[in-house]
Structure formats: C-alpha cells, structure tokens
Amino acid sequence: MASASASLLKSSLVIEKSEFVKGQSLLRQTSIVRCHPNAAASPLTVRASSSYADELVKTAKTIASPGRGILAMDESNATCGKRLASIGLENTEANRQAYRTLLVTAPGLGQYISGAILFEETLYQSTTDGKKMVDVLVKQNIVPGIKVDKGLVPLAGSNDESWCQGLDGLASRSAAYYQQGARFAKWRTVVSIPNGPSALAVKEAAWGLARYAAISQDNGLVPIVEPEILLDGDHGIDRTFEVAQKVWAEVFFYLAENNVMFEGILLKPSMVTPGAECKDKATPGKVAEYTLKLLRRRIPPAVPGIMFLSGGQSEVEATLNLNAMNQAPNPWHVSFSYARALQNTCLKTWGGRPENVKAAQETLLVRAKANSLAQLGKYSAEGESEEAKKGMFVKGYSY
Ligand code: 13P
Predict the structure, then answer these.
(1) Cβ atoms within 10 A of the Cβ of 18, count?
(2) Its GO CC terms (predicted)?
C-alpha cells in the first residue's frame, strides 16, 4: 500500500520550475516539482544529485586525510594589511604576494597540510617568481580552496549582531573559481554570545550557510560550513556549550532542508571554551570533553571532517586542545583549519625580510607538524617557544 501510493505520488509530479545556472561547465537542471493538486498541498522538492557528487566526496576525503589539516590563508586584503602592519610593512599587493609566496612554497608543506584556503586575489595571483599560486599548491599535494563570503554587516532588527553577505552571484562566481582550480570553499559567519545571540541572528547564520553549501556543491566545490561562535565575553564553558548546541541544531536543520549532501561538506567549528574574558580557564581535557560531547550530539557521522578554527587561542593552546580531542577514535576526522595558530610565529620570524624567508618557512612547518601530530593524538608541547604560547584574541575580530 505504502509503495503503491508512493509511485502514484511520483507519477503525478508536475514540473513547475527549472533553474538554469549560467557559467557552469556542466549543464544541469534542478527541478522543483509539486504534488498533483489532488494530493497533499505541501511542495515536494526533488533535487537532482549534484553531477559532482563523487568528486565532492573524494575532495572532502582527501582534505580530511590522516595527519593533515587546512592552512587558512584567506585573510581579506584588509585583514592581511593588519597582519603586515604588525611587522611594519605596508599593505601593498607586492607585500601580500611576498608573504603568500613564502607560505605556499614552504618545502614539504603538503605532508601536514591537505588544503589551503585562499582569498580571491590569491586564487588569481602568481608567486614572486611567476608561478600560479594554485599550481604551486597542487604540486605540493595541497587542495586549493577559496573564501567566497563577502564579509559581515550589521543585521537590522537584531541585538547589534551581524549577518554574512555573498549569496548574490555566488553560483557563477563558484563556477569561475572551480575553473581557476579551487575545489573547496569557505563561508564564515559569526554568532556573538554577549549579544544574545538572538534567535534571528542564529537563524540567519544557519540559513546563509545552508544556501551557500548547496550552491557550492552544485558547482563542484566542497563547502566548509563555519558558524564561528566568537570567543568574546566573560561567560563560562557551559554557556558556550548551550549556544553551540542551538547553533549546530539550526545549521543541520537548514543544511538538510537545502538538500546538502553531508558526505561532501566539511565543518569549521569553534572549540567549546569559556569566553576569552572568563576568569575560569579550561584545560585541554575539559575543552575536548565539551567539544566532543557537542559534536556527538549534533554532527552526523556522514560528515567526513571537522576542521577547527583557532579563534584567537595561542598556537600551543590550539594544538593542545586538538591533541586532547584525538585521544580516542572519533566518527569524523578531527583536525585543524587554523590561520592565526599556524601563521603567527611564521609572520613574526619573517618580519618582511628576504633573508628570513627560510627561517619563517621552518617555523610554519614546525606548527604544521605539531598540528599534524595533534590530529593523530601524538603531540607533546615540550620545547615550544614562548611566542607560540601567546594568545591572539582580539575583540570583534573580522576576516
Ligand atoms: P583563525 O584560526 O585565525 O581563527 O582563522 C579562522 C578562519 O576562519 C580562517 O579561515
């Protein structure tokens, strides 16, 4: 009976609308179909599985491979400028190019790094000796990725919160990024605990991430889903846990509603920690306990990889916390997608001087290797420098 009515339903489906996405290398159609008027009135969406499905799964698995994680080097030009200013350099294209060249050409980086997130400028940029950055990464066995969001703006009607822009034109931009060699994408939105978070801000963040994820998959890019719960605030770890549960419930609700294929996404969560201004600090053991409890409650095992952001933790702290989470097997690859916690000592060591490039690349490799060991649960903080233990929290940090 059940199957008879199911086939009846199928045969009475009427195609109502089709969407043609320009600029895609493969012409595909997404059909929205409705039940016959005589049947139940609720719309039934049938989404052709992405013609990139197999490739998406493969890309996600490659990035989530044992002992490897992501180098986030997708600072917008404005944020890159702040980094350069901290070592006394001007924010010129030549200086950004020199720094990014240093990062992507670090010898042997691909042993520890499986993916690199680039800012749009870098996706189309060449190294100082004229090779395409993307080609250099691929040669290092590193998958190039691209930041596709257009940044945060105030969310009208909220408690002084923000929302993330970038959906307009995203399909054609994503298709162009794929052509340029990108195979995964990143969209970072934020949730603030001191400002609520309001139900509106959480819903908006989750919906935006889900739309972005569906569009990315349609265009062959594995979406990294990143609702960053900011470290700002003096709240304790239990409050972070409570907010994170709410945020991830909503994110997965909308990912499912948008027919996103979970096997072809990666997540980039914040670790569950106390607020940066909280008096009580949490040990790596406690951060791991809370964070893994959250993940087990909210993240389906179909998701291949959880790639944490560092969010202002010190380099050593971020590595110790990751290591604590990998002391027993997890259903997903639990790894890193750090920017500050991979780059900080490297940037300082470089200081903008050509004669320091080699030493700076070595410090990048030290951090990459430390996090690789942490991914395998085998890291020890013995011998770490004082610089690597310095926190990098900045209130209202943007990317
Ligand atoms: P941090 O590791 O510096 O928090 O960067 C996170 C991020 O979103 C970069 O892509």
Answers:
(1) 10
(2) chloroplast
